[in-house]
UniProtKB/TrEMBL annotation:
Species in which this protein is naturally found: Streptomyces dysideae
Protein name: FAD-binding domain-containing protein
Signal peptide: 1-26
Record region (Disordered): 461-483
UniProt keyword list: Signal
Length: 483
């Protein structure tokens, strides 16, 4: 690297994507400067510019691996801070639109925690590197350069102050869904094509402390939405600090109320009463936080005919997913890994374009899953599924129903969700044969709680004791909660 500013990279945004981008570039550039408009907390508390900071975050296996590769030791730090590991489906009972899943496996392991913990952990590790600088309370106003090459950013303290030019060999926009990159590129004469899928899903989260009898040993609970109709779902999952987060969600026409007094009532209207029964025994540990910005929004920077050298867009600034699918942080990590690989071989003509295309490829599978599912809802705004997609959806519905009992199908379905199995496997000969055959047994009508878990619920004062006799083994036990 040579020339003025070529020894520096600037990253706009100190969220997960921005911090990981800084790690990705630290070995290629002499200096990495992160420009962040928020004043950041000292610890793992939510920051003002992250409205999802109060909600649960899930790290999928590829995301965990990417974070550890970019920031070695981060996983041990998250473990040490109490981020739980959840085996899927061993440590979580899952209800699909077709019934409860038997608990084979675990096929995958998820990390569950808050966004603040992830960002705080990464921030501490990054700032321990003398090559990294973090400018907080500073807003990026625009790009330096022209349509052929970006050479830095204009920045100014929020609330007023002197505008400064920060010259750089690379600028990475990781500023999130509110990114100004489309406007900046429009100033260079480029129009960015976009795809928006708005299913109208909304959710509300409240932290709880579970009774001691339940907090250790009770599984997480996930009730999926049925995107074929107006529906409700929920997630009850442990995070650091001994808390459990209850996130209740619904499609357009069944959205949860933001008020505290409506949170438990909405849980009672879920397709099954398990989450409501647990919350009835729990103590609230904070207010209800509502979130309604769940649009899946993709900016197709990779499709532009011309791309300026020295500029890459990453994370939510490029592709935002409906958060209920838990993919965003993991895809951001995969995008940062793609950025690192593109620049690791050196900086030259076409590197930024190559990096941008690699970032887009890193999001392709997650986008196909999130947007594809959301497109099925009858009230979704945006592209609708065509004839071929409707045929695929019918096959996937049959596989979803079969996966409730069949470990072979279940393992593949779980792997696709966890981004460890390519979706094409679901359309392979073995899966198509299973889909044609259809489910051989009806789905479980009750949550597959083990006798031990039913005992925990009973000791905590729940309904498990009355129905303990309904349980029949360690993987497909029943309980009282079907409706």
């Amino acid at each position: 690297m040579s020339g003025r500013g070529r020894s520096r990279a600037v990253v706009i945004g100190a969220g997960v994507a921005g911090l990981l981008a800084a790690f990705a570039l630290a070995d290629t550039f002499d200096q990495v400067t992160v420009v962040e408009r928020d004043r950041l907390p000292d610890g793992p508390d939510p920051r003002a510019g992250a409205p999802q900071g109060h909600h649960a975050h899930v790290l999928l296996p590829p995301g965990v691996a990417a974070i550890e590769e970019l920031a070695p030791g981060a996983l041990a730090a998250l473990d040490g801070a109490g981020a739980p590991r959840v085996g899927l489906p061993r440590d979580i009972v899952v209800r699909s639109p077709f019934g409860w899943l038997t608990r084979h496996g675990p096929w995958e392991t998820l990390l569950t925690c808050t966004r603040g913990l992830i960002e705080g952990t990464l921030r501490r590790r990054l700032l321990a590197d003398a090559r990294a600088t973090l400018l907080t309370g500073t807003e990026a106003l625009g790009l330096l350069g022209d349509a052929g090459s970006v050479t830095g950013v204009l920045a100014r303290p929020r609330g007023g102050g002197e505008t400064r030019r920060i010259e750089a060999g690379l600028v990475v926009d990781a500023s999130g869904h509110g990114s100004a990159a489309p406007r900046w590129l429009a100033g260079f004469g480029a129009v960015v094509p976009e795809t928006v899928v708005d299913s109208g899903v909304a959710y509300a989260t409240r932290p709880y402390h579970l009774p001691e009898a339940l907090a250790e040993g009770f599984p997480a609970v996930y009730m999926r939405l049925d995107m074929r109709s107006v529906s409700r779902g929920g997630l009850l999952v442990p995070v650091e600090g001994g808390r459990w987060l209850a996130t209740l969600f619904g499609t357009r026409g069944a959205t949860p109320p933001p008020a505290a007094d409506g949170h438990r009532a909405f849980a009672r209207d879920l397709p099954d009463g398990l989450i409501a029964d647990v919350l009835a025994l729990a103590e609230p540990a904070g207010p209800v936080r509502a979130f309604r910005r769940t649009v899946s929004h993709r900016r197709h920077y990779d499709r532009l005919r011309a791309w300026p050298e020295g500029f890459v867009v990453l994370g939510d600034a490029a592709c935002t997913f409906n958060p209920v699918y838990g993919q965003g942080v993991s895809v951001a990590a995969l995008g940062a890994l793609a950025l690192r690989d593109a620049y690791r071989t050196g900086v030259g003509r076409g590197t930024a374009r190559r990096a941008q295309r690699a970032v887009a490829r890193a999001a392709d599978v997650a986008w196909a899953i999130a947007a594809g599912v959301d497109q099925r809802h009858p009230l979704t705004r945006g592209p609708r599924p065509g004839p071929s997609s409707r045929f695929v959806n019918r096959c996937l519905d049959r596989l979803d129903a079969i996966s409730a009992h069949d470990p072979f199908v279940q393992r593949s379905m779980v792997g696709v969700y966890a981004l460890t199995v390519p979706p094409t496997r679901l359309l392979g000969p073995a899966m198509l044969y299973a889909a044609a055959r259809g489910p051989r047994v009806p789905p479980l009508g009750r949550p597959p709680l083990t006798p031990h878990e039913l005992g925990l619920l009973a000791r905590a004062g729940g309904t498990g004791r009355r129905h303990a006799a309904d349980s029949f083994d360690g993987t497909t036990a029943g309980s009282t909660h079907d409706r």
